[in-house]
Each structure stands twice: as structure tokens, then as C-alpha cells.
Write a structure and sequence with these properties.
Blueprint: E1 4-11, E2 15-17, H1 30-40, E3 45-49, H2 50-59, H3 71-82, E4 84-88, E5 100-103, H4 107-116, E6 122-125, H5 128-136, E7 142-148, E8 156-157, E9 168-175, E10 181-187
Parallel strand pairs: 1-6, 1-7, 3-4, 3-6, 4-5
Antiparallel strand pairs: 2-8, 7-10, 9-10
């Protein structure tokens, strides 16, 4: 069975975006990109909520073509172009996008089928609402939480309205020179 892995930047007080959706507090650098890249490069499927997909789609297809493209931009752009992309969205229900599978209904059933299909890991970037829903459904197998050294006080919480307990086991933790700590948990 394929694993569904959630990658998420989060503030120390559990927010994934500021009160107005701000993401400018997230620390990313080559050290973090290299560390995460070792895992993302194994995955052959990327899963997104609609908003995160739109952000990714606006950048990654051409990121490697820019004259000042970083090593990470070149590598991740190549991965993004070849990986299978799945978007969870009710508002995109009737859209037909080349190379993109849109799941609008029977989400749990569709994700279970996806996990049973041939392939390697399924990586979900960001997408807090989708991650929250899939966690409630017991479908997220691992969490890679990149805890940023900041207290936002308010904003979009990573987990909200969870109605059931999900026990986790810490697999690894890694501190970066920027002060970000990656906590890698596996569902027990």
C-alpha cells in the first residue's frame, strides 16, 4: 500500500497561515529544500487542495526556465512536471485540465483506491483543509511538520475541529540552522 504523506510548514503555535493568509513568515532555504527533496523525489504522486494547487501551478511549471533559477527550482520544477497531480476540489468539479485528476466526490473512497494503486508515495503539500479532512478519515500515514520559530497568535490553524484521536510516533526530528525544526511523525 502506498503511503500518503503530509508536508506542512507550521508556526510554533500551530498556524499554517497568518490572519490574512500570509505565508511570508515561513523560512525556506537550500538546507530545508535539500532535506525535503530527498523524500519528495521518491514520490510519484502529488496531492493538493485547490488553493495550494493554484499556487503551485502558477510557479513550478516554468520555475526552471528563469535566468536566476536556483538548484531547487530546477530540480523541483522537473519533478513537478513529471509527477502525477491530483487536486481535491468541489469548485473545479467540471474542469478538464491536461495531466490533472480532480477529485470532487467520494474523496475517501478515491484516496483509498489511489493508495492501493501501483506507484510510490503520495505527497500532499500544504493544503490544510484537505489534510485536516483526510486526517479525520484516517488516510494520512505520515506528517512532516516544518515548525517555524514564530508565534503568530492567530491565523489558519493546521488542525481544527478534529473529532477523533490520532496517535502518532515520532520517527525523526531535524533542526535546521534557520531555527526551523522538522518533526516527522508516523500514524500508529
Amino acid at each position: 500500500m502506498r503511503k500518503l504523506i503530509s508536508f506542512m510548514h507550521v508556526s510554533l503555535d500551530g498556524f499554517v497561515a497568518g490572519p490574512n493568509g500570509e505565508l511570508d513568515w515561513i523560512k525556506v532555504d537550500d538546507e530545508i529544500f535539500d532535506y525535503a527533496g530527498h523524500r519528495t523525489n521518491v514520490a510519484n504522486t502529488a496531492l493538493y487542495g485547490r488553493s495550494t494547487y493554484e499556487i503551485m501551478e502558477s510557479y513550478w511549471p516554468t520555475a526552471a526556465d528563469k535566468p536566476d533559477a536556483s538548484k531547487h527550482d530546477i530540480e523541483h520544477s522537473g519533478w513537478y512536471k513529471k509527477v502525477e497531480k491530483i487536486v481535491l476540489s468541489r469548485s473545479m468539479r467540471n474542469k478538464k485540465l491536461p495531466g490533472i485528476k480532480i477529485i470532487s466526490e467520494n474523496i475517501s473512497k478515491e484516496i483509498n483506491q489511489l493508495k492501493q494503486a501501483p506507484g510510490t508515495e503520495i505527497i500532499m503539500f500544504g493544503s490544510p483543509s484537505s489534510t485536516n479532512f483526510l486526517t479525520q478519515e484516517g488516510l494520512v500515514d505520515e506528517f512532516w511538520l516544518f515548525v517555524n520559530p514564530i508565534l503568530l497568535g492567530q491565523g489558519t490553524p493546521f488542525f481544527k475541529n478534529l473529532t477523533q484521536m490520532t496517535k502518532l510516533k515520532l520517527i525523526n526530528s531535524h533542526a535546521f540552522s534557520s531555527g526551523v525544526v522538522c518533526l516527522h511523525y508516523e500514524k500508529i
